[in-house]
Specification:
By secondary structure, the protein is of the alpha+beta class. The protein has helices at 7-33, 66-77, 159-175; strands at 35-36, 40-45, 48-53, 56-63, 90-91, 93-96, 109-111, 114-120, 138-143, 146-153, 180-188, 201-207. The longest helix has 27 residues, at 7-33. 29% of the residues are buried.
Length: 209
């Protein structure tokens, strides 16, 4: 007679399937409910988008590592400000990572001062009107309208994936005679628990006008 799976095994498989569906459903919900920084795409070149971003406001910090930087910024938007105001989370989170031999870099920006990270604030805030941080380790800054070259990629933003996509970004810019300004940043759009195949990451660098 053919062997059939035992009841405990069936229950285990069913539980794992239910957890997987819930995990994906949670990821979809977070993506749909998180405000994103608006932009317009002017053109796409070999997988690189040339985007125009409007004026934005960010909460920024520099810390010894990415965990500490994220904690500071999350505490700020979670009511840890002088107004005790909860500020909705907005995507992406910007980090400026380890420099790579070529020209520039997130999985994070690592400089001599540490990891620089920024949360974009919702569009209704101005630099002057945003809640003031309780600590001088977090600053509120206005970022003027700018043009960015952006290369998207999925899955986890490991150092290897960041390096490969960074190299491809700069190769594409060089091939089209586009001049980057400053160092690249890693843009991450998803919460840490988002399934890897649903994650959206980008390497971005500002372009000279």
């Amino acid at each position: 007679m053919p062997r059939t799976a035992s009841t405990p095994a069936k229950l285990a498989v069913g539980t794992l399937a239910a957890l997987g569906i819930a995990w994906v459903g949670w990821g979809v919900y977070i993506k749909r409910t998180t405000e994103r920084v608006p932009y317009t795409t002017a053109l796409t070149l070999n997988g690189v988008e040339i985007r125009r971003y409007p004026d934005t406001v960010v909460a920024r910090t520099t810390a010894d590592d990415g965990e500490e930087a994220f904690r500071r910024l999350f505490e700020y938007i979670d009511g840890g400000n002088q107004s005790q105001e909860d500020i909705p989370m907005t995507a992406p989170v910007t980090t400026e990572p380890d420099k790579i031999a070529m020209t520039a870099p997130v999985a994070t920006e690592q400089s001599a001062d540490g990891v620089r990270m920024a949360f974009f604030l919702p569009g209704e805030y101005t630099a002057e009107g945003a809640p003031k941080p309780e600590t001088d380790e977090v600053t509120i800054e206005h970022v003027g309208a700018r043009t960015l070259a952006v290369r998207p990629f999925s899955w986890y933003a490991t150092s290897g994936r960041v390096e490969r996509n960074q190299r491809r970004l700069f190769d594409t810019l060089a091939a089209h005679d586009l001049t980057p300004m400053g160092d690249p940043s890693l843009l991450r759009y998803d919460a840490p628990w988002t399934p890897p195949f649903m994650r959206r990451n980008e390497i971005a660098v500002e372009l000279a006008e």
